[in-house]
Amino acid sequence: MNNYFCGWYFKCQSKQDVISVIPAIHINNGKKSCSIQLITSDQVWNVEFPYCSFRKKKKAFMIGENYFSAKGVSFHLYGEGIELVGKLKFGAFQKLGYDIMGPFRYIPYMECRHKVFSMKHTVNGTLYLNGVEYHFENGLGYMEGDRGRSFPKKYLWTQCCLPTGSLMLSVADIPFGCCTFTGIIGVVDWKGKRYRFATYLGAKVMKIKKGMVVIKQGNMIFTVRLLKKKEQPLYAPIHGEMNRTIHESTACLVSYELKKRNQIVFSFEEEMASFEYEYPF
After folding, report:
1. What is the 3-state secondary structure (H, E, C) of 165-177?
2. 29, 40, 174, 198 — which has fewest CB within 10 A?
3. Full-prediction pTM beyond 0.85?
C-alpha cells in the first residue's frame, strides 16, 4: 500500500483526569513511519518513530518500548517535552455484538474504516507524566481504531464513559464515487440497554451546527451539544501522511439527551466527555 494509516485510540479516565493515547502507523508514497500521540485536558505531545520500531505480537503490538494490548498498556516514552512511564491494566472489554460499520465494512476503497474494540472497561495502575502521577483505581477506559487513507474532511465525534454506561457517536461526510453522503455510527449503553444509531439502520441528521448535532432514527432522537471545549491540536492522516491538524477536547463539558417515543430516556451533562468537531461553526 502506498498511502495507508492505521491508528488505535486508548482513553483512560480516573476520577480527576483523562489521558488519551493514540499509537499509529502511516505510509505515504511508500514511506513508512509510526508515532504515538498523547493528549490530556490541557496538553498534547507527538513522538515520531521509524517504522522498524513497530513490532506486532500475538494480540498486542509495540512501538519502541511502549506496549499496547487489550489487557493493558505500558510506557517508556521519551521525546521533546515528554517523559511518560508506567503501566495500566485493563479489565474485560465490553464489545459490540457486530461491527460498528455494519454492511459498510464490505464496501471496497472506503476512505476510512472505524472499529470499536471496547465500549467500556476498567483501568487500574499508575502513569508518571513529566514527573506528575496519574493514578487509576477502578477507572474507566474506552478503545477504538481507524484505518484507511484519510480522515473524513468534515466530521463530528464524541465519546463518554459513565458509571451507568458508555456512548460514542460519529457523524461524517463520506466520499462515495463522485458523490458524498452523511454517514452516522453510534452506540449508547445506558443502564443495561443498548441503543445503536447508524445510516444503515435509518438514522438521519436533523441538524448539525455550532457544535451541536441532532440524530433521528425511527422513534428515537439523540441530541448532543458541546458546551465548553478544551481542545488541543492533533495530527491526522491525509493519504497516509500525518500532516493534517484536527482539534480534540479529550475532557470537556458536553450535554447528551436521548428521547424515545417523545419520552426522555436520559438527559445529562458530562465534564469528562471527549469531542472533536471538524465542521464549520
Report:
1. EEEEEEEEEEEEC
2. 29
3. yes
